[in-house]
Amino acid sequence: MSDVVSTVLFEHPLNEKMRTWLRIEFLLQQLHANNQISSISSALIFFRTASDLLDVLERGEMRTELLKELERQQQKLLSWADLPGVDMSVVDGLRQELKQTATTLMAAPRIGQALREDRLIALVRQRLGIPGGCCSFDLPTLHIWLHQPQLQRDRDVQEWLNGLQPLNKALTSVLDLIRQAAPFRQHISLNGFFQDNAEGADLLRLRLSLDNQLYPQVSGHKTRYAIRFLPLDSEKGQVPARLTFELACC
Fold first, then answer.
1. From edge to edge, which strands make up the β-sheet containing 214-220?
2. Pairing relation of β-strands 224-231 and 242-249?
3. What is the pLDDT, as a whole number, of residue 1?
4. The overall pTM is greater than 0.85
5. 115, 121 Cβ separation under 8 angstroms
6. Angle formed by the axes of helices 119-127 and 40-57, to 10°?
7. Using an 8 Å Cβ cutoff, are 98 and 84 in contact?
8. pLDDT in tens, 47-78
């Protein structure tokens, strides 16, 4: 029996829109992973992540961009109707789901509004930039909140996360479809370098074996990209002359 080769997946955005979406996805995942606040440490992880998310959301019109992408994905699914062997019941189901997601997103309040208007979150955000600024004497409000029953804290956190659910659902749907848009194909880099045309893609996905302890450094945009593979150990690590890796250009 052959040994299973461990791999690591890297994703690189090819435009600003995708860069923002991946950052928001990352922050939403962190919020949900740290939604059980039982100490000052777990509280600061949650509130710092919430603050970062609000900062990212304030830089652009997230709802408009996601609605455009949901519509684009619906049209893309519709174009599959002419392809032989396509199960249209699956396609129609996906289109209906995207349509419902868009309707919910359009009807939702301003994204992140519940977080912005919450007094406790606002107080914590003001102190996060100060080293040690969330001590109990700086933030007695947070200190007393942490001494509320766990059930009450859980209820507050769930209310904050519920306000992000339309964003979370729309973003997850969009990114899932984009990631599934292209299969992984095997490629070979020469002396740690590879380049190709992006052909209007939004996202590069690279799968590397952990055996070589390498990571990709990607530069590029929607028409062309280049990948340089670098060793984790910059002093002793080596890059094979011919490196096989998997790449999906989505």
1. 7-13, 203-209, 242-249, 185-190, 193-197, 224-231, 214-220
2. unpaired
3. 43
4. yes
5. yes
6. 90
7. no
8. 999 999 999 998 878 999 999 999 999 998 88
